[in-house]
Amino acid sequence: CKLHKICVLPGDGIGPEIMTVAKKALSLAGQKEGEEFQYTDCLIGGAAIDATGKPLPDETLATAKASDAVLLAAIGGYKWDTLPSAQRPERGLLAIRAGLNAFANLRPAIVPRQLADSSPLKRELVEGVDILIVRELVGGIYFGQPRGFGTNDKGERIGYNTDVYSEPEVERIARVAFEAARKRGKRLCSVEKSNVLEVSQLWKEVVIRVGKDYPDVELSHMYIDNAAMQLLRNPKYFDVIVTGNIFGDILSDEASMLAGSLGLLPSASISGAGPGIYEPVHGSAPDIAGQDKANPLAMVLSAAMMCRYDLAIPKVAERLEKAVDAVLDAGLRTGDIYKQGTPNTKLVKCSEMGEALFAHI
Amino acid sequence: CKLHKICVLPGDGIGPEIMTVAKKALSLAGQKEGEEFQYTDCLIGGAAIDATGKPLPDETLATAKASDAVLLAAIGGYKWDTLPSAQRPERGLLAIRAGLNAFANLRPAIVPRQLADSSPLKRELVEGVDILIVRELVGGIYFGQPRGFGTNDKGERIGYNTDVYSEPEVERIARVAFEAARKRGKRLCSVEKSNVLEVSQLWKEVVIRVGKDYPDVELSHMYIDNAAMQLLRNPKYFDVIVTGNIFGDILSDEASMLAGSLGLLPSASISGAGPGIYEPVHGSAPDIAGQDKANPLAMVLSAAMMCRYDLAIPKVAERLEKAVDAVLDAGLRTGDIYKQGTPNTKLVKCSEMGEALFAHI
Ligand SMILES: CC(C)[C@H](C(=O)O)[C@@H](O)C(=O)O
Ligand SMILES: CC(C)[C@H](C(=O)O)[C@@H](O)C(=O)O
């Protein structure tokens, strides 16, 4: 029996509720496979600001670094929305990504069979969609220097940021994407805006070069504006998408709507060395926090991704994924994925969904 | 009878075909209302590169500046795709936008009644959608300095661009958007990424300040990633959207897919002083160029926008718009909007669509 040290960041809003379910589900699934988890809860986001004044206390980062992996629920809420931006909960998220060098953000956009009808897109377009977006997460315009406020040569006040990538930064994310594509449909689409931006021209050049090492993967290139269209026109065209930080932010959120709901979408942010961060794509939903209404499934699926990628215990991942599939098949739906009038479905609370999951595991 | 001087830029691919239809439709509609048009054809894009070596010859810009308005069809094609990016057709587009200071790009995303079924989104979500995207067009990361290639402090090669806005730049685009909202649904949504970027924080601050002058317009703010989602989740939420250059590029292309086809979407790029540029949202479609298969309707609707905005002859605009409505009602469809099996529709060529339009005008 192996002990896996997990840094647990429940964060804000519905975070603690869904984390409770995920921890228990993970432990149960681990038991069946002879794997044990040791959880260390730490503060991040608004909860950390309230307790320590900082969105990412040093102690949290230190614990995260000393762990095998990080499970993060969600951060932010109305309460902290009026703070100056440098002190807001989101900064904790950016800081832990950078602190762990979690440069590769993997976001699957999968339309679960049981929910294909809740997509805003027509069923025939989204049924069977299975896209993996690989977003660069610790570079680009999110972190580029110089940045700030200043004055231009006309004496007018300006705000500015720098979108910048270096060759090694593009190379390492490209390799993650090619490797992922190799294990899937063997098609990679690199998304940039090289008809306008130099940073994108470098991106494209390096991706093409790295691609030489992956002759078995079919590489294509698409401008970001066109990609935003094609995701709607023909989402099944895509297998793996690789793109920079800001384009990935936009595209992965757009792609997540193909599924109709964020309630089932996990994500992994990994460095290749050291612990990765596993978190649902959805936010902290402060409007329903503490009401036992949240959907814990994306959190549970994030734990499954953690088992697969960082912990290399795919059997535990499978148990979790199968349990999620089973509760959906059984018709259980939390508020976010419940659609009145759909036969054989039942509206349940977060804790009820949890109990059903535990039973299936 | 007034004479309107129009700088005509047929450009590449299907450009010349659709421009022929638009010019004739415009002249006919003008005749009925006692307005006359004088067309001066100039080179831009690939056609200009072939003839002069430059994507925007000085003569074209000079003629454009001396005109009342510019009608542009489409630029680009496979032939020029391998040129170094600084010499590609797109550069002509960026250069004429900057040269005319056409800072406000207005892109309506309307789902035409007759085509609601061709949207990838479910009919109930898109029926009645009527969004106006106001995109800043001559600033931001498209034009920000410094930009280029270089070396970072680790000696690695980098590519970089600067996303920058000044207060006056944001203020003028915000005013265009508030004015537009005032004439429509009185709701304006400003889209940025102020939780991460300083350039967005300045953007938001200035938009809020300008908003004080428009107490009758309801102002909201949305992060770009969320906007990319909400456009799919609930497109009817939006009335007018105002955003920066790159976010507007992405969002307007995404929004254009709500209509299912680009074939009917016009755009205006205006400076408030001097001639604006009117062009369809679609591209030059080199694959069907010269085959009389193109859809001329977006080009005709762009001419209508020109009549409304720059030339202040709304009656001519109405005649054009009514003719487009009529040919769609009559079931005429070019290949891009034709769906086999739809009752009472007929596949027609570009020239046939033109003849039908002329008859209706
Ligand atoms: C909260 C925000 C800073 C973050 C981002 O932009 O990266 C979020 O949108 C995400 O995608 O995880
Ligand atoms: C061709 C390209 C440079 C252009 C842009 O990015 O502005 C196009 O996508 C557009 O939106 O008009």
Automatic annotation (TrEMBL), chains A, B:
Gene3D superfamilies the UniProt entry points to: Isopropylmalate Dehydrogenase
Alphabetized UniProt keyword annotations: Amino-acid biosynthesis, Branched-chain amino acid biosynthesis, Cytoplasm, Leucine biosynthesis, Magnesium, Metal-binding, NAD, Oxidoreductase
Compartments (UniProt record): Cytoplasm
A Pfam family hit: Iso_dh
Keyword Coiled coil: no
Cofactor: how and how many bound: Binds 1 Mg(2+) or Mn(2+) ion per subunit.
GO biological processes: L-leucine biosynthetic process
SMART domains recorded: Iso_dh
Major place of residence: cytoplasm
Enzyme class, broadest EC rank: oxidoreductase
The family this protein is said to belong to: Belongs to the isocitrate and isopropylmalate dehydrogenases family. LeuB type 1 subfamily.
Protein name: 3-isopropylmalate dehydrogenase
